[in-house]
Automatic annotation (TrEMBL), chain A:
InterPro entries: OxRdtase_Mopterin-bd_dom (IPR000572), OxRdtase_Mopterin-bd_sf (IPR036374). Residues 87-220 form the Oxidoreductase molybdopterin-binding domain. It comes from Sphingomonas aurea. This is Molybdopterin-dependent oxidoreductase. Pfam families: Oxidored_molyb.
TrEMBL record, chain B:
The keyword Transmembrane applies. Its main location: membrane. It is a multi-pass membrane protein. It is found in: Cell membrane. Pfam families: Ni_hydr_CYTB. Residues 11-227 form the Cytochrome b561 bacterial/Ni-hydrogenase domain. It comes from the Bacteria. Belongs to the HupC/HyaC/HydC family. This is Cytochrome b/b6 domain-containing protein. Keywords: Cell membrane, Electron transport, Heme, Iron, Membrane, Metal-binding, Transmembrane, Transmembrane helix, Transport. InterPro entries: Cyt_b561_bac/Ni-Hgenase (IPR011577), Di-haem_cyt_TM (IPR016174), Hydrogenase_cytochrome (IPR051542), Ni-dep_Hydgase_cyt-B (IPR000516). It comes from Sphingomonas aurea. The chain crosses the membrane at residues 18-37, 81-102, 149-173, 193-215.
Length: 247, 233
């Protein structure tokens, strides 16, 4: 007779291994991955469109804001921009817009600013609190004038992953959220290179990998289908991270 | 209460049985995938923030592949399992609670009576446990006091706490329900409590399985599948 302990231990092992087999079955994988749509639907139903992420006071900030992902894009183009203190850097705003823009750091600084002390949550589990400043993305998008077909906003970055620029997308709910800013300052100083200089996205109701660093282009797009492998971001396309990173 | 030893009685209502197994699967997957997620950043903090340069109150070991889902480290897939079955756990518990109020399962089986909480009764029941006697021959259908207390603790404290601390980890839900975050004193505190609660639920599950074996696994498992339970000798 098989010992009861063996039975339970072995049973648990089989179940765990079973989970790995289940993920290989396309239909089961689709059901499991539909969890993302359920979570997004629930969260959007429970939260006001413009509900704010918690903000903190200066004393509640992390002593050090941990960088993550790329610490320095290291390309010749980026090195040149960096050497010139980003005076030659331009943020291109295009795609489905009426008036394409090319914005310098000074242009961003001349727009109405929003400063916010918010918490950055990495998908891995850690959090860091810091102060960010920059114009709202909504200001820039209104200046460019979105065409009716635009449904998403895509961010293309200076850092390369596998030879391809990092990219991320958000929908218009988050793009026009009051806390979604193009941050050029971190804790009252110009954004350091390790944190995405000269400008990064802050999209405060989602996890860190959505907050694209080293911004180069912003494009209004109609669908996620045409970019990368169609899932809306580098990590989404390559390692199955959720496109909706509100949880 | 005429249920002499050997007779078969109806022990568990259909709602209780369905929830038991749905929840068992959810707990199993949530614990396995949770350990996989822990491996991504195995440090726990108190307060609102916490990252590598901040002091951790606990550094967790790297959990081996035989207890994580998936077996080989993959944060994205661990999260997919975890966040899908979090919904199964949450809405399953909600449905079970409503069902158990309607069919009076809570009122009938989990309500504590004064006499059960007397020191004498607790002592007597504790001694009975040491003798592996888990049922009062006078009232074989009733849960014993330790059973009641542990079920109450799991159903009304541990599971809701795991769900609420989980909600507190979501930046989206922080905007929707900021009070959940305040309840636990910040996201990293909520993450620590989430881990501690999960540990408690894991320990409960182990004790629960051991007691099922000691109480007679065939009879106990059958009662949770069919509802029919044989009163022990």
């Amino acid at each position: 007779m098989i010992g009861r302990r063996t039975l339970i231990g072995g049973g648990a092992g089989l179940l765990l291994a079973g989970c790995d087999r289940v993920v290989q079955v396309p239909a089961a994988r689709r059901i499991l991955f539909a969890g993302e749509d359920m979570q997004r639907g629930l969260q959007r139903a429970l939260m006001d469109r413009s509900a704010l992420a918690p903000e903190f006071d200066a004393a509640q900030r992390s002593p050090f804001f941990r960088p993550n992902g790329t610490r320095d894009p290291g390309t010749a183009n980026y090195a040149a921009l960096r050497a010139g203190k980003f005076a030659d850097w331009r943020l291109t705003v295009g795609g489905l817009v009426a008036r394409p823009l090319s914005l310098s750091l000074a242009d961003l600084g001349a727009m109405p600013q929003r400063a916010q002390i918010t918490r950055h949550d990495c998908v891995e589990g850690w959090s860091a609190i810091a102060k960010w400043q920059g114009p709202q993305l909504a200001t820039v998008l209104r200046a460019a004038g979105l065409r009716d077909a635009a449904r998403y906003v895509m961010f293309t970055c200076a850092d390369l992953y596998g030879g391809v620029p990092y990219y991320e997308t958000i929908d218009l709910v988050d793009a026009f959220h009051p806390q979604t800013i193009l941050a050029w300052a971190l804790n009252d100083r110009f954004l350091p290179v390790m944190n995405g200089a000269p400008c990064r996205l802050r999209v405060e109701r989602q996890l860190g990998y959505k907050h694209a660093k080293y911004l180069m282009r912003i494009d209004a797009i109609a669908s996620l289908a045409g970019i990368g492998q169609g899932k809306g971001g580098y990590w989404e396309d390559n390692v199955d991270y959720d496109w909706y990173a509100g949880i | 209460m005429d249920a002499p030893p050997g007779t078969i009685i109806r022990r568990h209502a259909i709602g209780t049985r369905i929830w038991h197994w749905v929840n068992a699967v959810a707990i199993f997957i949530l614990l396995g995938s949770g350990l996989g997620i822990s491996n991504a950043h195995p440090r726990l903090y108190w307060g609102r923030y916490g990252a590598n340069f901040d002091p951790a109150w606990l550094e967790l070991p790297r959990f081996p592949g035989w207890i994580t889902i998936p077996a080989s480290y993959n944060l994205a897939i661990s999260r997919r399992w975890h966040l899908f079955f979090a919904l199964v756990l949450g809405f399953g518990l909600l449905a079970y609670m409503v069902w158990s109020l309607v069919n009076r399962h809570f009122a009938r089986d989990l309500r504590l009576h004064r006499r059960e909480l007397s020191a004498a009764h607790l002592r007597a029941d504790f001694r009975a446990h040491l003798d592996f006697r888990f049922h009062d021959p006078e009232r074989p259908r009733d849960y014993n006091i330790f059973q009641k207390l542990s079920y109450i603790l799991v159903i009304f404290v541990a599971l809701p706490l795991a769900i609420l601390t989980g909600i507190a980890l979501s930046p989206g839900m922080n905007a929707a329900w900021p009070w959940v975050l305040d309840l636990f004193g910040g996201r990293q505190s909520a993450r620590s409590i989430h881990f501690l609660t999960a540990t408690g639920i894991g320990l409960f599950t182990i004790v629960h399985l051991v007691l099922v074996i000691l109480a007679g696994p065939l009879n106990e498992v059958r009662s949770m599948l069919t509802g029919r339970w044989r009163v022990p000798e």
